[in-house]
Amino acid sequence: MPGFVLQIAPAPVDRAPPLVRVGFTVSRKVGNAVARNRVRRRLREIAGMVIPGEARPDLDYVLVGRQAALVRDFGALRQELQEALKRLKALALATP
Description:
Elements: E1 4-10, E2 22-26, H1 33-54, E3 59-65, H2 74-87
Parallel strand pairs: 2-3
Antiparallel strand pairs: 1-3
Helix pairs in contact: 1-2
C-alpha cells in the first residue's frame, strides 16, 4: 500500500507561472492528531525536495496521506512521489 495518493489538477489561468501550489491532507483514519501531523510533515518535506525541480509548474498538486506513510522509509516515499509524477505525466520537461 502506498504512503500517499497524488492528485493533480490544471492550475488557474490567471495565476503567476512560477508559483507551484501543493496541498496536503490526512484523514482521521490515519490516527490521532500527532500521527496525522507527522504524516503531513513527512509529505511536506518530500514535496519540497521533489516538486520544485521535477514537477510541471502549470499544475496544482495535492498529496493525500495514508497510514503507510508513518512507517515507510523516507527514501521510499521520495521515490514513490517521483514515480507518481511520472505515471501522471506531470514531470517538467528538461530544458537544454
